[in-house]
């Protein structure tokens, strides 16, 4: 039988802790390693100790609130996310995942449930990457994607170093930030969807099967500036018009591939005069697909169609990839634990692929990982308007709690 | 029989006078009412007096170099253009028209030809409008489009007033700047095409039949910002994509109407992040056609198609006209005089409509007017690279000279 968390307590915790960095518009401004980040960490440490947990933090300031299990030989099961926010962030992105982790520990404590492996709620440092780039840097060090020294050397816009700021707020620990040393048996993460799919389909739970692959490109188009009045249409080499035809083609390419998305977020054209045909245009392209091979096909189609358009419209172009992030496939055991939890609770759910990156992308490199999504208002995040329903938060925490217990039971049975 | 100007003298004059404001790259920087503008005017006045002409300038600084005719009762026939340039202008735009006017007077003087009406070479003040907006302000006052006071009150970017600067360079005259007082029987203007049509068709002379109508618009498109990774294509309201489809449609509209042109010269989209679907886009639209009624139809098509695209792509839009310039039809007598001149000289020629505005647009309001175009390199003007062939300049001046003589003969015969 599925157990349930205390939804009222979870909701109060969300509202109460939003005071650290709380904004006039109801959002949260809590950049990594700020005084507000320290304050919410201090509260998290105290809340963990209050229910008898062991608390420690590693060299990157990742905070582990650990409830012991019966079997001391098994690495604990992690429930993690982050407590830092964007500069104009909301109350849910990341925060909800850590607070649900704590709520799971509180529920196990209240109900006297003894698990096989330990269960640890984790606050990963600097997921957002808005003060110190890149994003997800501390889970990245844990997962082996970056070195500790690289992370320490990152500077904020005021040239304050990550390492110095971590020390200043008192969270530079001595436990190695290394998933091969400070191990986890698995990692589960609950997060708001940050997109409109669940809300649009009126489904409260997303069983996240992976994080889609991303590729970023710059495209420049060169034609010839000329006078808008004196140059007949057939003698033009209009860079902006060619770019527009290319952007429409990129949109159509995404529609032709299942689950593909294509976005042009930035466009500039020169010389930028009402009565001059633009001779130059630059735009960015973001292509994504849950499947690396399908994304490769999308890229090939884009290359082919852009070249055809350039030839037809008498311009030259360059289409250059400058960033690649391969797809993450979450672990079947973790996905199955979440699905069993959903089934036991009888909640409407669907499988979903995350469009955005999360700490779980890096934990997945070293341990079985998956995620749970809940809907958020209008699919909006990284915004003070970010919002989620109390009932959805509670249902999500219930799914998380039982998924962890399912995985723990599987660990106990020795099946991997 | 057609008479011929002195092509070598004309070419020398073009090269010699380019020293006033001459740039390192071979262009000319001679904004209206600058010291260089004064210097070239002083030279023009002296050159006119040297061949026995009467020289005067009006309240707007328009300089008239007048060769007397037999019939003192007839207003003179004007040959005008301008000696000012853009900040990074060339040696030909406007300048060529005034120097060809002088070359016609010199040729009549050399060959002792007595005309019926007087012939006057005119330098119109501040055609370019780059230092003092708007463009063609002094021919505009002469033609009744602006008041003298309006022109005097115009300020340059350093807040120097047109009236003060005109006085400072010594060209604020007392002759009324009023085409109903200081009359012309007709106005002819030779100009580089500023477009690629003649060069493309390898035709040295354009018989200009009018100046096309122009309408300018702002278009704003509003959708919804959203995450490039988490928002499926069918749930997007992508303002930039919709704008691109609109821009392609505007291009197609121009292609469907004879001699229509459509240009989007400025585009901006927000918020301008690689991984955010833009929720807002603004672009400008410039529609032109030689015929006002056809332009009206082009506008109606644009309104209809943009609205359809907005509905289909789930965005809202505003398409607002903010400037209208009706078509100018040049006078049949002047067009016919140019055509007769071309025929007599045996030059290849075609009729053409000017895509850009000229002083002749305003003279046409008060007297029969037409223009002669010659090719320019790559259709480029308002640029230090601006260039024209010596042979084309000479042929253009020959056409201008004989056109004036044809019109003068017609005046003498009493036919209007």
UniProtKB/TrEMBL annotation, chains A, B:
ATP-binding recorded as keyword: no
InterPro entries the record matches: Amidase_Cbmase, Bact_exopeptidase_dim_dom, Peptidase_M20, Peptidase_M20_dimer
Keyword terms, alphabetized: Hydrolase
GO MF annotations in UniProt: hydrolase activity, acting on carbon-nitrogen (but not peptide) bonds, in linear amidines
SUPFAM superfamilies for this protein: Bacterial exopeptidase dimerisation domain, Zn-dependent exopeptidases
Domain Peptidase M20 dimerisation: 212-309
Transmembrane segments: none
Domain of life of the native organism: Eukaryota
Record's keyword annotation contains Hydrolase: yes
Family: Belongs to the peptidase M20A family.
Protein name stated in the entry: N-carbamyl-L-amino acid hydrolase
Gene source species: Gonapodya prolifera (strain JEL478)
